[in-house]
Amino acid sequence: MPHIYRYENGQFTQFERPVVREQPLTIVTNGVELATFLCTPVQLDYLTVGFLAFEGIIRSLEDIRELDVDAENGIVEVELTTELVRPQKRVFTSGCGMGLTFTLRTSHYPPLQSELTLTPAQIFPLMQQLLDGASMYQASRGIHAAALSDPEHVILLAEDVGRHNALDKILGEALLKGIRTEGRILLSTGRISSEMLRKGAFMGTPFVVSRTSPTTLSIDAAKRLGLTVIGYVRRSSFNLYTHPERLRHEAEPPAS
């Protein structure tokens, strides 16, 4: 654990605090180097499976014959049951941790049909569960956390230097454990950018909730795709950006 010097009120004090681990991860698929990006080197199997699913490389676990994780060297080798169709275009996203995707297209997702509704009061304990369960975030602060929940409880939780990586880990764990994501709530400590919104649409989560803000592209996509976006969640307040009809409240919600 590194020694840290803090300057405050004209003097230095020394203390110890964990610092977030970060390293490159290379995904090799059918012997071909598919992608290399930076991540927090935990749950690399979840991260890999989620990334491959989000990017359309696999459609289900049946497409994976073998997955071998070499955490020490930062390599995951994946053998598919089918031939690899390598994407021709790479997009470096706005995400921290050198985010990478092969498409930002959302037009092929139909508008989400979901009967899930929440009261405003249900949002706050879910975000608190995310923060309470994010041990690396609590220890170092220099990391993002994400979670999949139902209206009452967090079901899956992941942390990573990249907010998009945290969502990949959520999807990967859900696929490997047979946990459905449709009709759930997606929680994040990071900014809701367009690629984050696309991941929510892929998972079929009618609510995407964050402690920080969405971008204009993500708001436009959420309106079209039928996702309710909530940002800046604090102890007793939040901002509602799209599809307010999913929030049950004593007062009449504002028009879309």
Description:
By secondary structure, the protein is α+β, with helices and mostly antiparallel strands. It is 26% helix and 28% strand. It has 6 helices and 14 strands. It has helices at 44-54, 120-133, 135-140, 163-177, 194-203, 216-225; strands at 3-8, 11-16, 23-29, 32-39, 64-70, 75-80, 91-92, 100-101, 144-149, 154-160, 185-188, 207-210, 228-231, 239-240. The strands form 4 sheets. A 6-stranded mixed sheet has the order 10-9-11-12-13-14, with helices on both faces. A 4-stranded mixed sheet has the order 4-3-6-5, with helices on one face. The protein has a two-stranded antiparallel sheet with strand order 1-2.
Brief sketch in words of this structure:
By secondary structure, the protein is α+β, with helices and mostly antiparallel strands. Helices cover 26% and strands 28% of the residues.
- Termini separation comes to 50 Å
What is the CA-based Rg, rounded? 19 Å
| SSE sequence, one letter per element | EEEEHEEEEHHEEHEHEHEE
DSSP, total strands: 14
Quick one: biggest sheet?
Answer: 6 strands, mixed
Count of alpha and pi helical runs: 6
Shape: flat
Mean pLDDT: 89
Low-confidence stretches: none
Q: In percent, how helical is the residue content? A: 25-40%
Binned strand content: 25-35%
Walk across the major sheet and give the strand order. Answer: 10-9-11-12-13-14
